[in-house]
Amino acid sequence: MDSWSLPLNSLGDVTLRKLSAFLDNGTKKGWRKLAEVIGTDRRFKCSEKELETCSLEVLEPNGSPGRYFIQLMTDRGCSVNHLISCLHKMGHTEALKCVMPVGE
What we know:
The protein is mainly α. The chain has a single domain, classed as Death Domain, Fas (Orthogonal Bundle), CATH 1.10.533. Helices cover 57% and strands 0% of the residues. α5 packs antiparallel against α6. It is globular, with a radius of gyration of 13 Å. The two termini are 18 Å apart. 27% of the residues are buried. InterPro entries: DEATH-like_dom_sf, MALT1_Death.
């Protein structure tokens, strides 16, 4: 099986934490922008309530809006390949470096 077609949780906890940190700290390239880009595919479009729930994660002791959003996408069957495609569209090179193996 092609590793890019694997679900997001196949990336591993360390990679997902790094990716979440990039998405939490970005304004123009953060999790909200990713939600906008990834949401062009109806399967992954989030409701306003879901986006609000992501935002409120910042109030939790170890909360991460980016990680919560990634979990939503994982639950909907988003693949690593689709995530990479969306990060490319956003121009989020830092996040791409943590998701893609060296040399890709």
